[in-house]
Write a structure and sequence with these properties.
4-stranded parallel beta sheet, 38% helix
């Protein structure tokens, strides 16, 4: 967390991020667009503040995880930028799109392509090993899981493990 990084003596700069908002376990497109628009309207001052901070320590590489500002600033400063995330499987990997999902894929992939695809190289983690569209700029690797999770075996018991990305789907929690 940011607090842990600060306690270790590292500097950090808090930056607003365009977020994805949910309602009834679906993306709330209107709220997501509102949030993104507000951040994009203030991007010049945010970019200037970030450039001032980053220039102070002269990095040779920027690492981003599905974040808007860092790749843009890295390009402006001539710094290489790599992206580590799972979202880019839609735009950087070759995968079949199920019938009936083309509109959903387009709605998700468009902002991903326009706003979050400015890095020089992509490391995409995925449970599925789809080939990259461009192996020069994209590598695919399995999710990074702790050894104890990898060693876990399914068993009947009292608990269920659920990976939940949206806090609005309360039906998963008894």
């Amino acid at each position: 967390t940011v607090r842990e990084v600060a306690r270790m003596g590292f500097a950090f700069l808090e930056v607003p991020l365009p977020g994805t908002f949910y309602a009834n376990n679906k993306v709330d497109i209107a709220a997501t667009l509102r949030s993104g628009s507000q951040i994009l309207l203030g991007r010049n001052s945010i970019t200037k503040r970030m450039i001032d901070q980053i220039e102070r320590f002269s990095p040779c590489l920027a690492i981003t995880a599905y974040e808007y500002f860092t790749p843009i600033i890295a390009k402006k400063l001539g710094i290489g930028c790599i992206s580590l995330d799972n979202q880019h499987f839609l735009t950087k990997l070759r995968c079949a799109i199920p019938r009936g999902e083309m509109i959903s894929r387009f709605i998700y992939a468009l902002p991903l392509k326009l706003m979050f695809s400015k890095a020089d190289h992509y490391f995409v983690n995925s449970f599925f090993q789809f080939p990259p569209r461009d192996s020069e700029t994209t590598d695919v690797f399995p999710p990074l899981l702790r050894k104890d999770l990898m060693d876990a075996r399914p068993a009947d018991g009292e608990h269920v493990f659920v990976y939940q990305t949206s806090p609005t789907f309360s039906k998963l929690i008894p």
